[in-house]
Specification:
By secondary structure, the chain is α/β, with parallel strands linked by helices. The chain has helices at 2-16, 35-45, 75-92, 140-156, 178-186, 200-205, 216-224, 253-265, 267-284, 295-302; strands at 25-26, 49-52, 69-72, 100-103, 122-125, 163-166, 191-193, 209-212, 228-231, 250-251. The strands form two sheets. A six-stranded parallel beta sheet has the order 7-6-5-8-9-10, with helices on both faces. Helix 5 links the parallel strand 6 and strand 7 (191-193). The chain is globular, with a radius of gyration of 21 Å. Mean pLDDT is 87; it is low at 305-310, 318-330 and 332-336.
């Protein structure tokens, strides 16, 4: 089971650690099966431990932060995790260890500037279906159902929408696709499941609007310049990490239907929605840009600096000529 899987990594590292000397630990994140015990060793030895934001901050593994320096997507996520981490130590009645939060930009998915794609008239739906065994995780089952009902309503309405594409998370292998299949069969001429061969960039380039609930695809789509809708439900799960997308992008189902209809039928409304999406995304990703982890980046990151109380200057920068054509990375982490 999951506990034994994690325990094997932790036990293996604890046995190996006495023979491993290091001056700094750079780990993928502070909560992963192997990264977590490595960061703990760094803390015990008084060595710096540097970790990175994996995706939308949406589960309890994020706190406590066991790194001395945390590279967040932007100031919004850095400030949110700082508050979350502080609340954890307060609740636990423990002294809070200092963490330096650094806004860096998008690390795993590549932000690509997309043109106005109003004429595509294609809607990309993410966050469905839910994996087997996940159950009503944080109340997300109802949100998943609300997304499918919204899709059905859009396809049945007299709109200019030509196609609706459902994109499952590429790292979830245990899906219940039946609800999606039913929707595709009901609207066979205009609804499809995205094929695994299609990259995220491929699906974004053929879409006019993107809709979901919590996926990192939504934050990337916004940064790329696509009108993007974050669907909420009454008493559904939300995360403060996405608060910067609340202005004019987060809607309950009926309001979401009206907004999608508006931006698919009015070119000016579409352009305004693009502008709003990119404005909000600049709050989420440092400067609305990608993070390029080259040698210069790590030199800046590993530089010994005093611990700070809040988010620091961004490490994001523009791509070099050789980096400009870098393909899209993996999508954000799953919500498990």
């Amino acid at each position: 089971n999951e506990f034994l899987y994690i325990a094997k990594y932790a036990e293996a590292w604890e046995r190996l650690a006495p023979w491993v000397e290091f001056e700094a630990a750079v780990a993928r994140c502070h909560w992963h099966a192997l990264c977590s015990p490595v960061c703990r060793t760094a803390q015990l030895r008084g060595k710096p431990a540097i970790t990175f934001q994996q995706g939308v901050i949406s589960h309890t593994l994020e706190a406590p932060v066991t790194a001395s320096k945390y590279v967040a997507f932007g100031n919004s996520s850095a400030a949110f995790l700082q508050r979350l981490n502080h609340a954890f130590f307060q609740a636990a009645g423990m002294p809070e260890t200092p963490v330096e939060y650094v806004p860096g930009g998008s690390l795993y998915d590549t932000i690509i500037p997309l043109p106005d794609q109003f004429d595509r008239q294609t809607l990309l739906l993410v966050d469905v279906p839910q994996p087997h065994g996940q159950g009503d995780f944080y109340g997300l089952a109802n949100q998943c159902q609300a997304l499918l009902e919204l899709a059905d309503k859009l396809l049945a309405a007299d709109l200019t929408l030509r196609r609706l594409v459902i994109r499952p998370h590429p790292f979830w292998t245990d899906f219940d696709f039946e609800s999606c299949r039913q929707l595709a069969r009901k609207h066979s001429a205009r609804c499809e499941l995205s094929h695994p061969a299609w990259s995220l960039e491929d699906d974004l380039r053929r879409s006019a609007v993107v809709v979901g609930s919590l996926s990192g695809v939504l934050t990337i789509a916004s940064a790329c310049g696509l009108p993007t809708i974050f669907l909420e439900t009454e008493d559904g799960y939300t995360t403060g990490d996405l608060a910067c997308f609340s202005p004019r992008q987060t809607f309950l189902p009926d309001a979401a239907f009206c907004e999608i209809r508006r931006i698919l039928t009015d070119r000016q409304a579409y352009a305004e929605a693009r502008t709003q999406a990119m404005r909000n995304a600049r709050e989420y990703y440092a400067g609305g840009t990608n993070l390029y982890p080259d040698a210069a980046f790590f030199q800046r990151l590993l530089r010994v600096e005093s611990m700070a109380e809040g988010p620091q200057q961004s490490l994001a920068r523009g791509p070099s000529a050789s980096e400009a054509g870098r393909p899209s990375g993996a999508e954000a982490k799953s919500r498990t």
